[in-house]
Amino acid sequence: MDEFKGHATFAAVWDWATKHEAKAERQLRGAAASKVKGRVLELGVGVGANWSYLPADIEYFGIEPDPHMLERARKRAVSLAREFALEPARAEHLPFDRGTFDTVLVTLTLCSVQDPTKALSEAYRVLTPGGLLVFVEHVRPEGQLSGRLADAITPAWRRVAGGCNPNRRTGLTIVAAGLEIQEMTRQRVNGLPMIAGTALKRV
Description:
Elements: H1 8-18, H2 23-33, E1 39-43, E2 59-63, H3 67-79, E3 85-87, E4 101-107, H4 116-126, E5 127-138, H5 144-160, H6 170-176, E6 180-189, E7 192-200
Parallel strand pairs: 1-2, 1-4, 2-3, 4-5
Antiparallel strand pairs: 5-7, 6-7
Helix pairs in contact: 1-3
């Protein structure tokens, strides 16, 4: 993987934030984790915020390019007394063979990858036929005015929020990658529009 210095300050803030999440955020993580099965790949592990919710009977792999996030994630794994297979890799360049995973899990990650189209194409590639993408992402607001506001604040937001882009149309990007959305709900969490659901890789 090309060198990625990461975001040390944001990693510390995110570590604290994920340990003090509101009920709505915890419910979204729990609902997403309940849908994973078999061999599972998580894109953008971050600080390991999903791990407390994962089923015990899965075979888990995770990737995370930010070394500061990864360091904090490893500490969280120790605190949970669990071992997780982790790779310092980008979602756009997954170090796995085609058709390796039954589930790809991605939560609050597609907003910050450099190329979401490439990341989702890679997710499609590594999924088995009939495999499932499970996603929870914040997205561009649907309203015309609020959407333009999200576009306007994106450059500043990206600088202070670890590369996050609050104006991405992630639902459309999932479909463009060849995945078929099976279910998708929309809601606001902490004022941010969110989508959550599943998408299938057809046989």
